[in-house]
Amino acid sequence: MRYLLTGFSIVVLMTSCSTTAKIFGTADKKNVAKTTVAPQPPAPARQAFMDQVTISPKNSKSDTRMARIEKNIASSEIKDINTVNDFVAVPKALPATQLQIKYASMLNMMPGSISNNGLLETLDDWYGTRYVYGGTSKSGIDCSAFTREMYRSAYGIELPRTAHEQYGRVRKISTTELKEGDLVFFNTTGGVSHVGLYLGNNKFAHASTSRGVTISDLYETYYITHYIGAGRIENNNGSLYATVPARIAAGTAN
Fold first, then answer.
1. What mean pLDDT comes out for the span 228-234?
2. DSSP letters of 68-122?
3. Is 17 a catalytic residue?
4. At what angle do helices 117-126 and 98-107 cross, to 10 degrees?
5. In percent, how much of the chain has pLDDT > 90?
6. Mind listing the pLDDT tens digit for each residue in 56-76?
7. Residue 44: what pLDDT?
8. Which of 17, 164, 194, 226 is catalytic?
């Protein structure tokens, strides 16, 4: 009887454990499911997260984002340029004079870059005058007399009479330093025997023996092979003389 009760007890115990295992096993599976499945964020939150994209060449959303930025910038721009002009002083270029246009084409320069109208007026007044050795008038003029007349009328400066004397008056400068108004010297008949007035862009005005008062290029074969050097007229302080035309300084300008 004892053995029978013991066997029955074992059967009851096994049945009890099986039932308990089923109960607790189901609960454990539910707990595992709850702990392993991540909660899904709401749709709006996910969309907001996706909008926070760093723009880069490799980002597929960069084009869309840049288009949006450009659209925002365009919508905030000032459409009326007059509104800008009311607050910002915009310099306006003065219209070029006929002389500026005329000589700019000879010098291969922009008209606005030639600002010394006094120089152009004096040059135009003498342009085409025939060459006469020792001449000083409209009937005929030589190279040093021409540069002297140019300086006298355009700058209000009196130069020595001959090319050699003018060469002794200037401060010698490098060809790379040449500016409008500098003098260029040549050896055409021995020593310093020819002089011209530099205008810019490698061009200089002078009284040529063959063409009279004209404009030539410093790098033409003849002139560059006879070139001596360049010089600048300066005062005692090393600065350029005032480039005020003599007729303006004297109050006789038209």
1. 95
2. HHHHHHHHHS---HHHHHHHS----PPPPPHHHHHHHHHHTS-GGG---HHHHHH
3. no
4. 80
5. 50
6. 555 555 556 666 666 665 665
7. 52
8. 194
**How many whole angstroms separate alpha carbon 84 and alpha carbon 88?**
6
206 is catalytic: yes
pLDDT of residue 96: 84
Please, what's the largest Cα pairwise distance for the chain? 162
Per the annotation, the verdict on 194 as an active-site residue is yes
Sequence letter at residue 115: S
CB 55 within 8 A of CB 66: yes
Asked which of 39-48, 88-97, 136-145, 147-156 is least confident by mean pLDDT, the reply is 39-48
How many C-beta neighbours within 10 Å does residue 14 have? 10
- Residue 32 to residue 26: CA distance in whole angstroms: 10
For the CA atoms of 123, 129, 133, 134, the dihedral, rounded to the nearest 10 degrees, stands at: -60
Catalytic residue selected from 17, 143, 164, 226: 143
What domains, with CATH codes, occur in the chain?
98-241 (3.90.1720.10)
The residue among 209, 207, 208, 153 whose CA lies nearest residue 181 is 153
